[in-house]
Amino acid sequence: MEKKAEPEPAAPAAEPRKSWFQRLRDGLSRSSRELTGSIAGIFTKRKLDEETLEELEDVLIRADLGMETALRVTDTLASSRYGKDVSDAEVRAIMAQEVEKVLGPVARPLELDLSHKPHVILVVGVNGTGKTTTIGKLAAKLSQGGLSVMLAAGDTFRAAAIEQLKIWGERTGSPVVSSKLGADAAGLAWDAFEKAREAGSDVLIIDTAGRLQNKAELMAELEKIVRVLGKHDPEAPHTVLQTVDATTGQNALNQVEIFRNVAGVNGLVMTKLDGTARGGILVAIAAKHKLPVYFIGVGEQVDDLEPFSAGDFAKAIAGVG
Question: Can you give the pTM of this predicted structure?
Fold first, then answer.
């Protein structure tokens, strides 16, 4: 009698991909845990008085949320709950509400003006803040949206940055314009614009160096790139995105100031929120600079760059919802 073949064992089911909000909560868990733990320590069977408000203010400032947001939270609490028993859950709910108010005006979608072709996106930021990875993820998003994208390896001082951009180019089907190590970045930007225009590309994304240790040189280079692009199109670069690394905490505030003055930064991408207890710095940056925050990143995967939602971020950092 013919022996029947044993059925193949079923492959284990792939774990379902977590929702973006769940990944955001996971990514902000360190920031949220430290903050909510400190708040719980203050509001254990205590009435809301001057002392508790001062302690809360200190906790919020230490969590990098910034003075303005700390005062908003304590003022709101004082006006509604002064002299009453307050639970840490109530405090966290008010914190989420006030953080959302600060972030709401800066949470905007990235809109590209495609009457300019190519629409030039210049990406700036300190080395190590995730510029090249962000460019790759952004190229993937734009390509999925049906746009043709060209990339330019303008960080000509780091071989690794050039190679990394070429890998992202292959992954996303985006041609990459590059030159030899140490080449003039402004010259490369000029050539890349010409090539993107000839190819009919919708978008040109240009990587740049971020060597803050020789700040004057770097700033002169960025100014030159902006100037050269302006000769092709007076309005180029049309979008200047700065990547800001959440793990750098207070330094991130200064970095935004520097790049804004030199390169005319008009939008931010916050990276590495999953590796830090200092995610609150995004709130301080929003309060101080009021620049649009287009995307946030909580991981290395191509889809770990998502449009920024003020409500989701506020809930995740306050540990509510």
Answer: 0.89
